Amino acid sequence: MDALVPAPVHAVAEPAQAFTIEAGTAVHAAGEALEVAEFLAGALRLPVLDAPVADGAITLRLAPAADQHPEGYALRVSRRGIVLAAAAPAGLFAGVQTLLQLLSSTAHGVRTVAGGQVRDYPRFAHRGAMLDVSRHFFTVGEVRRFIDQLSRYKMNVLHLHLTDDQGWRLEIKGWPRLAVFGGRTRVGGGPGGHYTQREYRDLVAYAARRFVTVIPEIDVPGHTTAALASYPELNPDGVAPDLFTGRGNATGFSSLATGLDITYRFMQDVLRELAALTPGPYLHIGTDETHATPEDGVRAFLGRVLPMVAQHGKRAIGWHEILRSRPDATVVPQYWGRKPGDPLLTDAVARGHQVILSPADKVYLDMKYDEHTPVGYEWAGHIDVADIYGWDPGAYVADAPDSAILGVEAPLWAETLRGYADVELMAFPRLVALAELGWSPRPAHDWPGFARRLALQGPTWEAQGVNYCRSPQIPWIAV
Ligand code: TNX
Asked: Please, are residues 404 and 397 in contact by the beta-carbon 8 Å criterion?
């Protein structure tokens, strides 16, 4: 019980009550609880029985209660059996992740679940990571692995940065060259790639089975060389620029033509197809670093594009620069600045916006841990595990109630990454620190305790072949 990450709201260890998984143990569930039961049974290699609570069994039960958090759960492990109850399937899934962390097996293959009781629910609704698949393309298999890794720590959002100067990574049927031409390459000029709509739908469904919402980002009107290179008619002079394979240190050098009608036909088509692929409530439209777009052009562009997002029944997220155009309060700014108490956020919250916090000097996973990290940037400083753990999202915006903070998200930009092993190196263990900031109540916050619990994940990662960074701040167990 004292090894759980993220730390639960309330847990009592009952060491004499460990449950032993026997040859005949089954997972019992009915109705809507069955899908999560099957997930657990798959992980434990046990059968599922559509049957009521029984001694010696692992039972998953939905007990809808209006006052209970949709991701909350109650878990009771005793010698006689395990009962996991929640108001909604998302809560059962969170409880399953707790149960799996309580599992251990002896050298002889005897599997036990630590005894005790847990009552738990998250602090923030949005607990996410962003993967930049534009600067470097990651395959469906790699993204699935990332989703699995997020969900183990009760993270529930995967933001995919699908387009940028260096690559357009999603098939758009009305504009096919975006993916087949605009997705051809990547930073450094190696091969790129893209997701067909079918692959993308499968990915979204895979995430949904793990209660992870995919938020797709089409970054506009800047960061758009891949689109401009694919269709000459999107350029005011009718001439397509070359594909871009640099890192883009001078980010913000490209722009959609905000004065051309075709730009809005393009946006309407892209957003329509994107919305149709997105069961979740959000579409992310970028809007960062629009240095190549005149300020009134940005305003005019957003004045036409934001209603399109709403028309498709979705809520828009934009990087915090979007606030300069004074959008209505349904728009969610994602803050990547570095100023606690930034008046930009205080004012936005006062106008009714909910915000996502991704301060670059706290949670940018593309920053190096220290000077020895083989990849990554340093413009927002070094970020070791204690830095990502050492701030309070609830206190970052002056005078904001917790309800104004939709949550936290760690972006992983991919300019310097060489492959999926580098994703793991940059994400682990730091992402787990963010998971705890997002899930655990503020009073549970405790660095020495967290460092000790995090160290216990090391053997799991070794066993799974996760390329994590053995930060010297963590008391890793010798391997
Ligand atoms: C800034 S943060 C960017 C990205 C880069 C990143 C590199 C933001 C919204 N834009 O385009 O990839 O820095 O750290």
From this structure: yes
pLDDT tens digit sequence for 42-58? 999 999 999 777 788 99
| pLDDT tens string 25-46 | 999 999 999 999 999 999 999 9
Q: Relative to the CA of 377, which ligand 1 atom is closest?
A: 14
Rounded CA separation 9/68 (Å): 14
Kindly give the number of the ligand 1 atom that is closest to the alpha carbon of 336: 2
Per-residue model confidence as pLDDT tens digits over 215-242 = 999 999 999 999 999 999 999 999 999 9
The rounded distance, in Å, linking the Cα atoms of 281 and 231 is: 29
CA-to-CA dists, residue 292 to 9, 222, 252, 325, 337, angstroms = 47, 7, 6, 16, 20
Beta strands 213-220 and 157-161, pairing class: parallel
Counting ligand 1 atoms within 8 A of each CB, the residue from 134, 249, 251 with the most, and so the one to mutate, is 251
The DSSP output letter for 406 is E
Residue 23 contacts residue 37 (beta carbons within 8 Å): no
Chain-centre distance of CA 144, in angstroms?
12
Q: Are the C-beta atoms of residues 218 and 162 closer than 8 Å to each other?
A: yes
- According to the model, what pLDDT value does residue 52 have? 75
H helix or E strand, kind and range, residue 95: helix 89-101
Give the sign of the dihedral formed by CA 412, CA 440, CA 43, CA 202: negative
147: tokens are 């989703």
Taking CA atoms, 403 is separated from 118, 397, 425, in Å, by 24, 12, 33
